[in-house]
Write a structure and sequence with these properties.
The protein is mainly alpha-helical. It folds into six domains: 175 residues, P-loop containing nucleotide triphosphate hydrolases (Rossmann fold), CATH 3.40.50; 54 residues; 77 residues; 94 residues; 232 residues, Serine Threonine Protein Phosphatase 5, Tetratricopeptide repeat (Alpha Horseshoe), CATH 1.25.40.10; 59 residues, Arc Repressor Mutant, subunit A. The protein contains 46 helices and seven strands. The strands form two sheets. Strands 4-5-6-3-7 form a five-stranded parallel β-sheet, sandwiched between helices. The N terminus is likely disordered.
Length: 927
């Protein structure tokens, strides 16, 4: 099948495209073998993307092929393309887990319900399609993806990234420079370029008209090998020009010709046929009935389509379908504005006012001119329906259009602010800023100005640019005044969160100023958010009034959170401030328990951004307990989610402490370098966390001077996130370097704060700090106390560090036998964790006692990839494949695929053998 003058000629072999055909062949083979494949074809109009989709369909006869061509007029209809794509499979939704089914039903408007979370919609789509492949492998072909509505595009990108072993293929064609906002960049992308010279000539010579060889060379060069441009020129140029008798245009009008040729074909048709084509271009591709009803209102009959079929514009077999997506785009884009309004008015009149209320509102808007409050109100109502489905991009689009037709300046500005908020919820901060700018001078009054400032601050946070945010939010508080105490408190909470993250970097407004404002504004918390509110108050008092004032409030907050049902808001990364509070009290048990509960709640809600932050907190807990492999699993999942959500804060910068403890110096130094870049964007806390990680690394290497320098920076900054955790590190470095002043200052702070915290970690750290500065029997007693107390919490790494220090102290006192006991325990722990520098330090100390120790060997379980380790761990805990799939946002078949690889790598044959093989307790044996 090739292009010929705008027509398809079946039965002819495709010219060239060997690399593309091989890629498609590999994808189809993978799908036939039970795996999955995704291919994104990008290129300019006419380059052959649609032809490659047709090639794929022809080669997939034993697969069920589902095709969809997106259309520009429907870009604003949220989840519209997804609905078309899933329509053949909606009879299977009763097989979905409850939350997934509810989310998908709400998104597609099948049943009323709360707004759908977009990631639950993605998981529901993934599960539904995977379920459908049980009957027959599937191939989805999506053309003109640049015109997808944002919600559908996000869902399909999410599904594409999660496909693995699902007998499902997805090939997406997208025009260069339009549309997808980089959603498909993380997939397998193939750029389709012009045909090579020899193949382009062969294609040109395949047309019925005679083309001179020299003319062919010029056409090939002038078109860059674009197949559609070659064939259009062969069809559009005069015979004298093709034969070389008359000169060719110079330069060849290729860019305009692609659309101009189709436009010329359409204009040559009878007027009623042109009107029918415009209706077809503006109507939904899956509802030809609407188009024919609109045609009837304009007095058009089916006979009007025949000239377009004869001209090769519409298909012969399906006369209500354009031969090529570019023709549809051209018909719509080049129509006169008055003609477009007339077509949309007919479509609006033909829409059912109840069943098709949203499309009716949109067509009415496209048919209107100037201020029209009736149309604006219709669009505003449609925006509320979009919001109820979770279609926030669609909501924003409806509201922005409603603002265009709104006469009252205040109401117009209010609708633009609502549109900006919807854009933020959808994750499109750039579009939110545009809406806020459009609201501009129309924003009046302190409440509207407060809303604007809050949204601009949120948009900054989306860009992970934090420095200006505290000042912006404090300005919003000032403008709001006493009008709304609850809103004031929310703004202050957000400002404190941003100021804590910025730590030392806020512009014009300091962390202390924000904290003082939070303390001054404290009011009776509402019941639902009691624990969260008190926790924020505790952090504020810690900063504004001192540790002794903040610690008791933080303890109250953590106790309430542990005892109560409420844990956090899935729409915000509560885990970040929760981690600060727990670290400030050395309360790793609360941090582990609450982060696990948060993760479960985030997964149930499909709140991927919040879950990603929770995973980072849980990974730190894993590190303190020596579970480095589990931490790496969480970091890997974080990176997956960052790719899914477009979050820019992913990557190795989050693995600072893992790199430090594992002795991976090159990666650590690169991650530290990245923190300097992040500090320029206002992330001062991240650089202090890097200094804490470097302190741990240098102590492991025995480079105490460098460790002292890094630890002192954290000590002076004293952030809640690691200001207390660094104290025993600073004392160790101070003792080893002989810096008595630093040692005593750190010990004084530790003695003041640890009793107030009262947790095993705090008291164990205090005993260690005192042991490092004591002598004789008193030091030995304190070391042993530290080992014993730290053993009461999941702190295997810290306990091993104390054993190492205790063993070193015993060896220096010539008590080799006692030293060996502590050093052997420390070495074996570090060796099992993968804490290479500390294991080596313990090994050298053991050698000094006269005992040998083998260097670390890697256990077979560490051959598992992070995803395999994660699946294995969940299976070991007793979860079914379906439950694991739901937690990991993948399919059950993908879980089974990973489990089969786990069995093979570990040399086991059943799930019952997994716990022992990966070194985890058997849940049954523990009951």
């Amino acid at each position: 099948m090739v292009w010929n003058g705008g027509r398809h000629e079946s039965g002819q072999q495709m010219v060239g495209r060997h690399a593309e055909r091989e890629a498609i062949g590999r994808l189809l083979d993978a799908v036939r073998d039970g795996l999955s494949g995704v291919l994104v074809l990008t290129g300019e109009p006419g380059i052959g993307k649609t032809r490659l989709l047709e090639y794929a369909a022809a080669r997939a006869r034993e697969l069920r092929v589902v095709r969809l061509t997106a259309a520009e007029p429907e870009t604003g209809l949220g989840f519209g393309a997804l609905h078309q794509l899933l329509r053949p499979f909606l009879n299977r939704t009763d097989r979905l887990p409850g939350p997934q089914r509810a989310a998908l039903d709400a998104a597609l408007g099948l049943v009323p319900g709360p707004p759908a979370d977009r990631y639950l919609v993605g998981l529901a789509t993934l599960t539904l399609l995977s379920e459908a492949t049980a009957d027959q492998p599937l191939l989805f072909l999506l053309d003109d993806a640049q015109w997808l509505d944002r919600e559908s595009a996000e869902t399909l990108a999410f599904v594409a990234r999660r496909l693995h072993a699902d007998s499902l293929g997805l090939i997406i064609a997208v025009r260069d420079g339009l549309g997808d906002d980089g959603l498909f960049d993380a997939l397998s992308v193939h750029s389709v370029t012009g045909l090579p010279e020899s193949e382009a000539r062969n294609l040109l010579f395949s047309v019925p008209r005679r083309v001179d060889a020299d003319v062919a060379d010029r056409i090939v060069a002038g078109t860059g090998g674009n197949p559609l441009a070659l064939l259009e020129l062969a069809d559009a140029l005069a015979a004298e020009q093709l034969s070389g008798i008359a000169p060719l245009p110079d330069p060849l009008p290729v860019g305009r010709l692609l659309e101009g040729h189709f436009q010329q074909l359409v204009r040559a048709l009878p007027p009623e046929t042109g009107t029918l084509l415009l209706l077809l271009a503006a109507a939904p591709s899956d509802d030809t009935g609407l188009m024919w009803r609109a045609a009837g209102r304009l007095g058009l009959s089916a006979r009007a389509a025949q000239p377009a079929v004869a001209a090769g514009i519409l298909g012969r077999d399906t006369p209500a379908a354009f031969r090529h997506p570019l023709i549809r785009s051209t018909v719509y884009a080049t129509a006169e504005p008055g003609e477009r309004r007339r077509a949309h008015a007919a479509l609006a009149a033909a829409c059912d006012p109840v069943r098709d209320a949203d499309r009716r509102a949109w067509h009415r808007a496209e048919a209107a001119e100037g201020v029209d409050d009736d149309v604006a109100d219709d669009l505003a109502a449609a925006s509320e329906r979009a919001r109820s489905r979770g279609g926030y991009s669609q909501q924003a689009r409806f509201l922005s259009r409603a603002a265009d037709f709104t006469g009252d300046p205040d109401k117009r500005a209010d609708r633009l602010l609502d549109a900006a908020q919807a854009h933020l919820v959808s994750g499109d901060a750039a579009a939110a800023r545009i809406a806020l700018d459009l609201a501009g001078a129309g924003i009046s009054g302190p409440v509207m100005r407060t809303r604007e400032l809050r949204m601009r601050a949120t948009a900054q946070m989306f860009r992970i640019a934090v420095a200006d945010v505290p000042a912006m939010l404090m300005d919003a508080v000032s403008r709001l005044g006493p009008r709304d105490p609850r809103l004031t408190w929310e703004l202050l909470r957000e400002a404190l969160h941003a100021a804590l993250v910025a730590d030392g970097c806020p512009q014009t407004t300091s962390l202390t100023e924000v904290a003082m404002a939070v303390v001054a504004a404290r009011h009776a918390p509402d019941t639902a958010a009691y624990g969260r509110d008190v926790l924020m108050e505790g952090l504020a008092r810690r900063v504004a009034e001192g540790y002794e004032h903040g610690a008791s409030v933080l303890r109250t907050a953590l106790d309430r959170l542990r005892d109560g049902a409420e844990i956090g808001d899935a729409n915000s990364p509560f885990a970040v401030v929760l981690s600060m509070a727990c670290d400030d009290l050395w309360d790793v048990r609360a941090e582990r328990e609450l982060s696990d509960r948060l993760a479960a709640a985030d997964r149930d809600a499909g709140a991927l951004y919040a879950l990603s932050m929770t995973l980072l907190v849980a990974a730190r807990c894993d590190l303190w307990d020596g579970r480095f492999t589990e931490a790496e699993v969480r970091y890997a999942e974080f990176d997956d989610i960052a790719a899914d959500t477009g979050f820019r804060g992913g990557g190795d910068i989050n693995r600072l402490h893992l790199f430090a403890l594992a002795g991976r110096e090159p990666e650590l130094q690169e991650a530290v370098r990245q923190t300097a870049v992040m500090k320029s964007m206002g992330h001062g806390l991240l650089q202090l966390l890097a200094q804490h990680a470097l302190s741990l690394f240098e102590l492991g290497q025995g480079r105490y001077g460098q460790a002292l320098r890094h630890a002192r920076a954290v000590f002076e900054g004293d952030p809640p996130a690691c200001g207390n955790l660094v104290l025993p590190l600073l004392i160790e470095a101070g003792v080893r370097t002989g810096d008595r002043a630093v040692t005593l200052a750190a010990l004084s702070r530790l003695e003041e704060r640890a009793p107030l915290a009262g947790t095993p970690w705090a008291l164990g750290a205090l005993a260690l700090g005192r042991a490092l500065t004591a002598d004789g029997d008193e030091a030995e007693k304190l070391y042993q106390e530290s080992v014993d107390v730290l053993g009461q919490a999941p702190l295997a790494l810290e306990q091993a560090r104390v054993r190492l220090l205790f063993g070193e102290w015993l060896r220096r006192r010539k008590r080799r036998s006692d030293a060996r006991k502590q050093l052997r325990a420390a070495y074996e722990s570090f060796d099992a964790f993968g804490a290479v520098p500390y294991a080596e330090r313990a090994r050298i100390e053991l050698l000094a006692t006269g005992e040998t120790a083998r260097r670390r060997t890697v256990d077979t379980r560490f051959d598992l990839t992070p995803r395999e380790r994660q699946v294995a761990s969940m299976a070991a805990s007793g979860l079914t494949n379906g439950e694991i799939a739901t937690r990991l946002f993948v399919t059950a078949s993908t879980v089974e695929f990973h489990l089969n690889k786990v069995f093979r790598k570990l040399g086991i044959t059943s799930r019952k053998q997994i716990p022992r093989a990966i070194g985890e307790p058997d849940p049954v044996a523990g009951d």
